């Protein structure tokens, strides 16, 4: 567990308690902990371990990542994501149950979003059927971070390519009345990006959502790309 000890020790050395207090303003929910390390500084710190991570077997990499996740600190979780991101070619569908367990330790939207884009999306593209099975499970989870992950998995390039539009819409549909603000924002973000891949279908879906009186957060996030008459058409009831 030498690598874990080195990374953890390095993170503690760079702790910024003042910044950690400020972070609390953006993470007003139970369970969030942070060392207050700025994103740029964290990226620079982790990059020095890239070669060492690359030289690990995938089993060793998973063990190191799991230890970083179990600390339940935002910075260590992001470090765990970094480890898996750099071993992504070695991660197969048989590791999905391990990723499922890993999410039990996540503590913030930033750690979930980073995980979705750097770890989960490459696996989704490589093993769509198996990954979708887990996304459907997360979609119904009591854990709000898993519910957010079930839709944030489709943002950016994955949503824009139009390959998973139907699957994304089905998962969003299950969460349109979710009580958690951060889940609602995840749904809106997902809809915005999958709309780029299938404008007509998703536009019509969002228009109907408005008429169903879903939380405004969802529709406002979903229409961020829209302007002029299209935006007006969505917002009118």
TrEMBL record:
Matching InterPro entries: ARM-type_fold (IPR016024), DNA_alkylation (IPR014825)
Gene3D superfamilies listed in its UniProt record:
1.25.10.90
Domain of life of the organism encoding this protein: Bacteria
The record's annotation in CDD domains points to: AlkD_like
Q: Which PANTHER family match?
A: ARMADILLO-TYPE FOLD, DNA ALKYLATION REPAIR PROTEIN
Q: What is this protein called?
A: DNA alkylation repair protein
